[in-house]
Design brief:
This protein is α+β, with helices and mostly antiparallel strands and about 220 residues long. It has helices spanning about 5-15, 60-65, 80-95; strands at about 40-45, 50-55, 100-110, 115-125, 130-140, 150-165, 175-180, 195-200, 205. It has one domain: 2-Layer Sandwich (Beta-Lactamase). The protein has a seven-stranded antiparallel sheet, with helices on both faces. A two-stranded antiparallel sheet has the order 8-9. β4 and β5 form a beta hairpin.
Length: about 220
């Protein structure tokens, strides 16, 4: 984690969880991380709806992708080549309670590209059985065009699990370990992976569907 914002969110999450696998959603106070909110997001993994979507997304992240992201399918950002691998990464986070650090490269329609640090951190499951993931995405540098030219497709440059036993609470020193070999790049031609399928072992698998959006029904605190 090179970016200070990434380290700060990790440190905050690590302090909240204490000796548990993950903190609860209601323990995360926006006022505690107000300086990070524009880069922070919360994903909802719904087994009932078979979706992983944005529950909340900061203003800078919405600007980077050129749209309001609430309710948008997270896998819709990723190239077909990487959609299955991202689904497996998400499963490691919400099912195995493993923080994962990703280096993501985003591409615009005009061929510009930018690298981002993405950190995905598990939260305790909700009462209805759905899972929450809190994350942050920050660019490697201040590209002048970010926010004016939206990112239309993302690819994985690297993905690593964070070893919590060797990570200091403030995130200033940590070790990472490679995730197990990711799935072969075998995706259906022309697939659109906004939806996921929850298979028998609880892991996620993208569905080749022409739908990236869903309706999020409000109900209490996210």
């Amino acid at each position: 984690m090179r970016h200070a914002a990434t380290r700060e969110l990790f440190g905050y999450w690590n302090r909240l969880r204490g000796h548990r696998h993950a903190p609860r959603r209601d323990e995360v106070e926006p006022s505690d991380i107000r300086q990070l909110l524009s880069d922070t997001f919360i994903l909802e993994v719904s087994g009932a709806l078979k979706t992983v979507s944005y529950r909340l997304a900061g203003t800078r992240i919405c600007a980077i992708f050129g749209r309001e992201l609430k309710g948008y399918g997270y896998l819709g950002h990723w190239s077909e080549r990487d959609s299955f691998d991202i689904a497996r990464v998400l499963a490691r986070v919400y099912r195995d309670f493993e923080p994962v650090f990703i280096v993501m490269r985003g591409h615009t329609e005009k061929g510009k590209q930018a690298d981002f640090e993405v950190l995905l951190l598990p939260l305790e499951p909700m009462a209805d059985g759905s899972a929450r993931i809190i994350g942050i995405a920050v660019s490697d540098k201040d590209h002048y065009w970010l926010g004016a030219e939206p990112i239309v497709e993302c690819e994985i440059r690297s993905a690593r699990s964070v070893d919590l036993e060797d990570s200091q609470a403030d995130g200033s020193s940590w070790k990472s370990s490679p995730t197990p070999p990711l799935s072969p790049h075998l995706t259906p031609p022309g697939g659109d992976f906004g939806l996921i399928e929850v298979v028998d072992d609880g892991s996620l698998r993208p569905l080749a569907r022409k739908v990236r959006h869903l309706t999020v029904h409000e109900g209490g605190k996210d």
